[in-house]
Design a protein that fits this description.
TPR-like_helical_dom_sf, Serine Threonine Protein Phosphatase 5, Tetratricopeptide repeat, mainly alpha, about 0% strand, about 150 residues, repeat, 2 domains, TPR domain protein
């Protein structure tokens, strides 16, 4: 995480991909298969199927933060924002450095017209990953609205 924090944008993207690969591994081939099937279903637009796989994964590996994050993504696609926020909260409780879960929380809060907490979520992403492009854009977008000061 320190390398990510200190990296230039190009290196940071490489580190981000490496972290994503690490965070996707549960330590169990069976659980990794559920993760893979859930992700494949999500990418194919089969959101209900994805939620089923991620829910089964969570049932068997409740301390696996990435399972909660991925299911939150599926809930978000269904516009089940309360369920998505709940799952992101659990993912962040298990992995407080999960900047993608933090970013997702910011996206949901912003879509619910809650700019102050969205701004805080995006700012927390930048504390861990200062070159996160989408979080930088979001902070810039919300800055004047939240603080009343345009930068």
């Amino acid at each position: 995480m320190q390398q990510l924090h200190d990296a230039d944008p190009a290196d940071a993207r490489t580190i981000e991909r490496e972290l994503d690969l690490v965070w996707r591994r549960s330590g169990s081939p069976a659980m990794d298969l559920l993760m893979s099937r859930g992700q494949d279903a999500l990418e194919a637009g089969e959101v209900e199927t994805a939620i089923g796989h991620f829910s089964a994964l969570i049932d068997h590996a409740p301390d696996f933060a990435e399972a909660w994050h991925r299911r939150a993504t599926a809930f978000y696609r269904q516009e089940e924002f309360g369920l998505a926020i709940s799952d992101l909260g659990r993912a962040l409780a298990l992995n407080p450095q999960h900047f993608n879960a933090m970013y997702g929380l910011g996206v949901i809060l912003e879509s619910l017209d809650r700019p102050d907490p969205a701004f805080r979520a995006y700012s927390q992403v930048l504390e861990l990953y200062p070159t996160h492009e989408r979080a930088l854009e979001a902070v810039d977008r919300l800055q004047a609205q939240v603080t009343g000061i345009s930068l």
